[in-house]
Amino acid sequence: MWDCVTEAWTAESAVHTDRVEAVAISPDGNWIASCGRDGRLGVWERASGSATAFVRTDSSLTCCSWAPDGTALATGGQAGAYLFRFSPPLP
């Protein structure tokens, strides 16, 4: 992850194995979703930069978006669209 304020890398992706195609920030600003050519959808905690969850699909993903209330993630690509419920991990 790139920090725009310090202009430095703060974390590297251990989730994606190919190019990231899209990134979406949750409505509350606490979570970042990313998807890519490897067919994976990852969720990152913004504050720590750590990967919290990921899902693997059968084909490349090219877009992702949060539901307005932050409880679901939509993603899509060559094989169609997917909708995943999202519950933040408890502290």
Q: What does this entry look like structurally?
A:
This protein is 0% helix and 51% strand. The chain has strands spanning 2-3, 8-9, 20-25, 31-36, 40-45, 51-56, 61-66, 72-77, 80-85. The strands form three sheets. The protein has a four-stranded antiparallel β-sheet, with no helix packed on it. Strands 7-8-9 form a three-stranded antiparallel β-sheet, with no helix packed on it. Strands 1-2 form a two-stranded antiparallel sheet. The model has no long low-confidence stretch (mean pLDDT 84).
Distance, first to last CA: 22 Å
| Cα-based radius of gyration, to the nearest Å | 13 Å
Shape verdict: globular
Catalogue the unreliable spans: none
The amount of helix comes to under 10%
Can you list the strand order of the major beta sheet? 3-4-5-6
Major β-sheet, in short? Answer: 4 strands, antiparallel
Q: What letter string, H or E per element, gives the SSE order?
A: EEEEEEEEE
Number of strands: 9
Percentage of residues in DSSP E strands: over 45%
Structural class, from helix and strand content? mainly beta
How many DSSP H or I helices?
0
Q: Tell me, rounded to a whole number, the average pLDDT.
A: 84
Topology diagram in text:
Layout: E1 2-3, E2 8-9, E3 20-25, E4 31-36, E5 40-45, E6 51-56, E7 61-66, E8 72-77, E9 80-85
